[in-house]
């Protein structure tokens, strides 16, 4: 039996066990997960290894503030992420990187462990 498959099965089993305990110690979704990570409230991130989310850091040149978006392909087509709602001015992309790649480089900065889950095992 494939060793990686056994490990992933163990991770998934633990994940569902933690969910069933209903401890309130699990977050779902990219936005809530990244917010929890930024608050140092995560121990482990379970991430699909082919996640199709891009992390964007967007700057409003008029207000001189930045926001971080985690967008899928469909969301990238929505102009609300690229224009200021009040002024209509185009926002500037400061950074753009696939979320999986960004996490694999930065996860240690937040003290979390990243577990990749694949559908290829």
Structure in a nutshell:
This protein is of the alpha+beta class and 121 residues long.
**Count of helical regions:** 4
**Structure classification:** alpha+beta
Count of β-strands: 5
Could you please say which CATH topology applies here? Answer: 60s Ribosomal Protein L30, Chain: A
Largest sheet: 3 strands, antiparallel
CATH architecture: 2-Layer Sandwich
Q: What keywords describe this structure?
A:
4 helices, two-stranded parallel sheet, single chain, 33% helix, 60s Ribosomal Protein L30, Chain: A, 3-stranded antiparallel beta sheet, alpha+beta, 121 residues
Lay out the secondary structure.
Elements: H1 3-21, H2 30-38, E1 44-48, E2 54-60, E3 65-71, H3 73-76, E4 92-98, H4 99-106, E5 113-117
Parallel strand pairs: 1-5
Antiparallel strand pairs: 2-3, 2-4
How would you sum up this structure, described in words?
A hairpin with a 4-residue loop joins strand 2 and strand 3. The protein has a single domain (3-117), classed as 2-Layer Sandwich (60s Ribosomal Protein L30, Chain: A). 33% of the residues lie in helices and 26% in strands. The relative contact order is 0.21. The protein has helices spanning 3-21, 30-38, 73-76, 99-106, and strands spanning 44-48, 54-60, 65-71, 92-98, 113-117. The protein is of the alpha+beta class.
């Amino acid at each position: 039996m494939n060793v990686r498959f056994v490990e992933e099965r163990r991770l998934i089993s633990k994940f569902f066990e933690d969910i069933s305990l209903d401890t309130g110690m699990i977050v779902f979704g990219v936005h809530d997960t990244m917010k929890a990570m930024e608050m140092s409230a995560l121990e482990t991130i379970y991430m699909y290894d082919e996640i199709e989310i891009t992390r964007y850091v967007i700057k409003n040149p008029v207000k001189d503030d930045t926001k971080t978006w985690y967008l899928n392909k469909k969301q990238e087509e929505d102009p609300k992420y690229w224009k200021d709602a009040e002024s209509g001015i185009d926002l500037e992309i400061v950074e753009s990187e696939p979320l999986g790649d960004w996490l694999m480089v930065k996860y240690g900065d937040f003290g979390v462990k990243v577990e990749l889950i694949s559908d290829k095992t």
